[in-house]
Amino acid sequence: MGKVFVFDHAKCNGCRNCQIACKDEHVDNDWSPWAKPQPDTGQFWNRIEERVCGQVPKVKVSYVLHMCQHCGDAPCMAAAPDAVYRRDDGLVIVDPEKAKGRRELVEACPYGAIFWNEELEIPQKCTGCAHLVDAGEMPHCVDVCPHEAIWFGEEGEFPAEIAAAEPLVPERAAVDKPRVYYLNLPKRFLAGIVIDPEADEVITGAKVTAENLDTGDVLTTETDEFGDFWFLRVAEASWRVYVEADGYLTRAVDASTVDEDRNIGPIGLYES
Amino acid sequence: MGDKGYLFVDHEKPFRYEDEGLTVTRGSAWSGPGCHLGCGVLLYTDENDKLVKVEGDPENPYNQGRLCARCLALPEVTNHEDRLLYPMKRDPVYRGQTDKWERISWDEAYDLVERKFKEIKQDYGPEAVLFMQGTGRDISPYITRLCWSFGSPNFSLFLSGAACYVPRVIGLAGTVGAFLVPDCSQVHPDRYDNPDYRIPETIFVWGNNCVVSNSDGFFGHWVVDLMKRGSKIVVIDPKVTWLASKAVAHLRVRPGTDAALALGMLNVIINEDLYDHDFVDKWCYGFDELRERVQEYPVERVADITWVPEEKILLAARLLAESKPATLEWGVAVDMTKEAIPAGQAISTLFEITGNIEVPGGMIVPPEILKYVGGWGKDLLPADAAEKRIGQEKYPLFASEAQPDCIVEQLETGEPYRIHGAWIQTSNFLSCMAADPQRLYRAIKDIDFIAYVDLFMTPTAMALADVILPAATFPERNGIRLGDGAQRGETINKVTSVGECKSDMEINLELGRRFNPEAWPWDTVEEMFTFLLEDDTGMTFEELQQKAPAYPPFEYRRHEKGMLRKDGAVGFNTTTGRIELWSTFYHNAGLDPLPYFEEPTPGPGSTPELMEEYPLVLTTGARTWSMFHSEHRQVKRMRALHPDPLIEVNPQTLEKLGMRDGDWVWVENQYGRAKRKVLATPAIDPRMCSTDHAWWLPEGDPGAFYDVFDLNINNLVQWSPGKSGFGSNYKTALCKLYLVEE
Predict the structure, then answer these.
(1) What is the largest distance, in Å, between two alpha-carbon atoms of chain A?
(2) CATH of the domain at B506
(3) Last residue of some domain: A129, A149, A183?
(4) How many whole angstroms separate alpha carbon A121 and alpha carbon B42?
(5) How far is CA A45 from CA A76, A83, A101, B77, B388, in A?
């Protein structure tokens, strides 16, 4: 058990309060033994990344939280077992005294969550606001979130969320056992618009089937009142998209979401 | 003092209390640094009265414990090492020179301003002094009173067409007889739980990235609160924002064509007979004329003008008509187009003829304790002085302030009279609001005397000021929060001191007493605040400190109850007593009484011949989370969120231009150019680009006014007001991009 963070992307509108609250809490404040002061700039123990995905006119904006994952098997602990430790409540701490001069710890973190403090010559990162947690309070980033997109507490408090969650970096999850749980992480979309080029009109209610050419999985939807179709939160894959509508010839189009979200653009159907 | 029916919330503690070695003071957050809201805050000070921490006040229904990054970083502004700490003077012959400043005492500073302004008044008349303000600062009542009690009619701001908020306010005054704001339950202390309140079925977010901008008394998170409670949103914005990503429909309108879009939607609602017959019959005037006008805007034509597909216009119009209630959160984009008055008129008409006025969850007339947009103390101005207000003959809709574009012309020509002095309070106009800032700089730089009040040294102060008075941030002063949106009784409470800084109102009170003692009969600013408060609230400043926030009694459907007109009659406060879809007010001012659309100039619709040279539509003024207009550039952690002036360009466009993300470019048109760093993003249509505004570099060259003329995007914007004198094309221009050669 122990403490965990849960972050829900669906609720984050990118306000950066968490990022600034981290500065408010840690710049000019020495919270030894958990952390020395954070520099005003150059370090982001808590950082919001804006992701703008797709192609005009089908574009989505979302935000992703980056912070120490307080891993169950932390690579930084493995790299410096004498200088990094886990508290009884699960928070991973880089000891500011013992880690002095250990610049290699910055590289040891696969999440980019450890920063080098030039002036103090120490590696630094999120402490989970251990000093506040010990006083029975919430980490400051959690406290200031306007929409409760970041939660913190005992693992046992969030069974449903943890069951639904994903790791930030899936390929590292089994090894690192990160303890920041992500809900509704941005996923690829596959979208387009179905039109009748001869009538110069959109076609509503067209049946759209997307076949995942890598796995054979099939998704279906219909075009909406704008003639648009959206497959949200799809896999990174190659797709064949079939479009059918009454009175029109069926068309198939290939598209890829391997590298980025995909707006196929207009798909013209001709009368049968 | 009696009970005026105000409503309060329960407080667990007094407004000031001790907590673990720190003193906590409850109050309102307004301003400087600039802001348009006034959230409830808890200010934490240490044993030396230093501000060390700011938290949202969970007891305050307005923000319910939440803040934005700018309040969380408030101590970094208040305690910043670059703050102006004491008054300084510089001989006018050395304007623009960095090493001629001389520290002076407050007495000397006041004496200097008093003597200079009185000399100008004696030699040339009081109208020869301008009183100019910026935005988002709690000074409007006090600077207007200072101006008028001095005897000058020339209070204004250096913003072409006063293109911010005021066009919408004046526009609605001329059609509805009052301003309208979206009802997000902000008038109720129990907020969303109020039994009379209804959740809007659909919220139209129009020209406003409200979760970032928090503009005009509107806390952007309310939209998200309402989305969580079931409201749908429709977003009208050229750019894909987070809100647009969550919208049932996003109408990616071409900058400056909002009026056409609204008229197209009106066409659908009227021709498909979707309007509220009962409300139109009972409460609206001029519907037949409106019906005729909107026939000029069929959906196909509007789709061509606006870049919004027909299907989306139809859907938005039908959804608005079906939604009971629907409401509108609109932004400055409506004002920052040349024909702002008819644009605002067209958009508000949508919500009027669908019966969304004065209903729960619709659009409501905001309760006001002080009608601050009209200023405070206009009766102090003698009638003969009022006649000399700049621009009033040309633009009769300007009833209180001097018309800014006419001021610039008059500075240049000296006609009909020459300007000799300027009082500039909290307005860094050379980097922020002035169009064509280098023209204004040339026009004003040789007038006799310029006094300037602000928090930090700015490009404007370095270029122009002869005396500079250091203003307080809000934790350094007492005050009352009477500003944009639905007003409530809130106090701003002093918790700290920095240098010799004084509050804007303290400065105005002292100078006012020197100019015109009868107009300023108060010994302290607190007495002045009590005077402003007591009629409406029945409370003194000190009583309100304890009890705030205080909510004025509020009812819906006030037009049915005779509560919107001074004469107590039912209806709206207009000539006809109805909402005037055909405005007698505009008609009497010689303006078109009906809403219309005109192509922004220059633009693809009005100047196609320029498109070869300047192929991209440029929109400016994109808001950032961490900065308020030209402020916050010197606060390192805020600057780190947005270190450079950016121009957002679609990757396809960049590919054609052979440019890349991160390149430094000149953005240029026929009027001037400004330097920007490219941000490649699909959030922007390939036919346009978008940039943030108000840039200067506190770390730049003070002798070059902190590089402002290299970075100011308004180099590309002209002084070009609409026909009413309101509105200007800040958000619609053409441009080209080319790489900066080192």
Answers:
(1) 76
(2) 3.40.50.740
(3) A183
(4) 36
(5) 15, 18, 19, 22, 58
In whole numbers, what is the pLDDT of chain A averaged over residues? 95
- C-alpha A232/C-alpha A222 separation (Å) is 13
Of A20, A24, A146, the CB nearest to B53: A24
**Cβ distance B222 to B188 under 8 Å?**
no
**pLDDT, tens digit, for every residue of A224-261?**
989 999 999 999 999 999 999 999 999 999 999 999 99
Q: Taking each helix axis as running N to C, give the angle between helix B166-173 and helix B340-352, from 0 to 180 degrees, rounded to the nearest 10.
A: 60
Q: What is the pLDDT of residue B2?
A: 67
**Is B474 within a domain?**
yes
Same domain, A40 and A167: yes
Q: Which residues of B touch A (CB under 8 A)?
A: 53, 55-56, 66-69, 72-73, 75, 211-212, 221, 224, 228, 240-245, 249, 252, 309, 311-312, 315, 625-626, 636-641, 650, 652, 681-686
H-only helix segments in B198-309: 210-213, 221-228, 242-245, 258-271, 277-283, 287-294, 299-306
Residue B300 lies in a domain: yes
- State the average pLDDT over residues A79-98: 97
CA atoms within 13 A on the CB side of A29: 14
Ranges of chain B whose pLDDT falls below 70: 1-2
What sign results for the dihedral spanned by CA atoms B382, B386, B388, B393? negative
Q: How far are the Cα atoms of A139, B28, B72, B409, B467 from residue B33, in angstroms, in the given order?
A: 27, 13, 12, 31, 21
A116 alpha-carbon distance from chain centroid: 24
The answer to the question of residue B64 being in a domain is no
User: What is the C-alpha separation between B497 and B478, in angstroms, rounded?
Assistant: 11
Report which secondary-structure segment, H or E, holds B107.
helix B106-124
Q: Whole domain around residue B469: which residue ranges?
A: 88-157+370-481+489-551
Exposed, middle or buried, A171 (CB in 10 Å: 0-12/13-18/19+)? exposed
| ipTM for the predicted complex | 0.88
Per DSSP, the residues of B172-190 read HHTTTSS--EE-SSTTSTT
**Which of A14, A21, A54 is facing B242, going by the closest CB pair?**
A14
A232: helix, strand or coil: strand
Distance (Å, whole) CA B413 – CA A45: 57
Is A136 in the same domain as A59?
yes
- Supply the range of the domain harboring residue A72: 3-183
Tokens representing residue B737 in the block: 């991009």
Instruction: Confirm if A67 and A47 have CB atoms less than 8 A apart.
Output: yes
How many structural domains compose chain B? 3
CB pairs below 8 Å between A and B: how many?
A: 98
- Rounded to 10°, the helix B299-306/B258-271 angle is 160
Chain B contact for A272 (CB, 8 A cutoff): no
Phi and psi, residue B454, nearest 5° = -165, 175
Q: Indicate yes or no: CB of A147 within 8 angstroms of CB of B68.
A: no
Taking the Cβ of residue A205 and every Cβ of chain B, the question of whether any pair is shorter than 8 Å is answered with: no
Question: How far is the C-alpha of B440 from the C-alpha of B445, rounded, in Å?
Answer: 8
How far lies B291's CA from each of B257, B288, B673, in Å?
20, 5, 43
**Nearest residue to B233 via CA among B359, B319, B343, B352:** B319
Exposed/middle/buried for A28, CB within 10 Å: 0-12, 13-18, 19+? middle
Whether A40 and B636 lie within 8 Å, measured CB to CB: yes
CA angle B339, B340, B341 (to 5 degrees): 95
